[in-house]
Amino acid sequence: MDYMYYSGSGVRTPKRRVTCTLITTDGTTMQGSFFCGGNQRVKDLLNGDYLFVAFETLDGEIHLINRQQIARVMPESATGQARAAA
Questions:
Q1: CA atoms of 70 and 13, how far apart (whole Å)
Q2: Which CATH code fits 3-85?
C-alpha cells in the first residue's frame, strides 16, 4: 500500500493512491491522487460522510478539498483511454 492512515480509533488502515484529474466548480484542474482504503472506490470516497477529502497533487502537496466544490473527477484509466482515442 502507498499510504497509511490512522483512524480515530488508532487502528492503522492501509490506503492506496488512485490517480485522477480533479476539476472544481470554479474550473480549477488538478492532477494527483485520492487515498482509498480496501475495496473503496473514488466514487465511494466522494459519496462518504466526510465534508473534506484529501487529495495529493503530483508535486506532493496535500489539499483538503470540500466535496461540494468538486465538479468532476476522471480516474487515470479513464483519462488515459480518452487520450488514446483522441
A1: 25
A2: 2.30.30.100
Q: Which amino acid belongs to residue 46?
A: L
The amino acid occupying position 37 is: G
| Residue closest to 34 by CA, chosen among 9, 62, 8, 6 | 62
CB-neighbour burial class of residue 33 (10 A; exposed 0-12, middle 13-18, buried 19+): buried
Do residues 75 and 83 make contact, with C-beta atoms less than 8 angstroms apart? no
Between 5 and 84, the more confident residue is 5
Residue-wise pLDDT for 54-75, tens only, equals: 999 999 999 999 999 999 999 9
Amino acid at 19: T
- Going by C-alpha positions, the residue among 56, 53, 79 that lies closest to residue 68 is 53
Give CA–CA dist 72/75, Å, rounded.
Answer: 10
Phi/psi region, residue 27 (left: phi>0; alpha: psi -120 to 50; beta: rest), is left
